[in-house]
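Reply to dn_fold:

You asked what the input looked like. This is it:
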Amino acid sequence: MNQNAFDLTGKVAIVTGTSRGLGQAFGRALARAGADLVLTSRDPATLRPFQAEIESLCRRALSLPLDVRDAESIRQMVDAAVAHFGKIDVLVNNAGCNVRKPALEVTWEDWNLVLDTNLRGSFFVAQAVARHMISRKYGRIINIGSVTCVAGYAGLGPYGASRGGIKQLTMSLADDWGVHGVTVNCLAPGWFKTQQNARLYDDDEWVEYLRDRIPLKRPGQPQDLDGAVVFLASDASAYVTGQTLLVDGGISTGATRALPKKK
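and this is what came back:
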């Protein structure tokens, strides 16, 4: 294999939801691999520190407003990105949200918020970007899922439904757009501490329970995702499409706490 297959120099990547958390981790990894970035948030002012960080790596960066629940906002963001850079090579479809409630307490509005953001939003961002990729016969689309793509957890009904949908959507789009040179894959992190779930990690008993279920015995760190996102964005993954890549420390194996040895 070409030793430079992982090099993203000269590539332009959109990463949605880059005001915080894993979105910034994905952007940082792509920039370090050579990519120039389009950063998005509903409030682009929140992106200024991160844009400065990316530019300190000698990469170009453009911050744009994006509300993935608004079709016109999606169109304007993609058009502005193409006008500025002339092309889009990579999309990391990361923007998302969660409402953590017991199933009996989930409201109609809760459901719509999560599904409209995570699933409908991801589809229409991918569609808008794919129009430009297809015209160039090249593209890498990375939909961000989670371990809930393949496993169910109490209190995460709408979120799990949205992430399961992302897995199925990824396969459909891969089949749709492969003929045009566009690959579509799902990167599915396991349990990573983010601003969305930080309060869970304040419970030492819960953290210990989580560690027991992860074969590698620790929650993920942002840098654990670097190799996977660069791989899926690069020519190293040219023959990989429609796949869900779990980066979860092995929790999706179904590991459980070991029984104490009998005396």
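The helical segments are 21-32, 48-56, 71-85, 108-136, 157-177, 204-213, 226-233.
Hope that clears it up.
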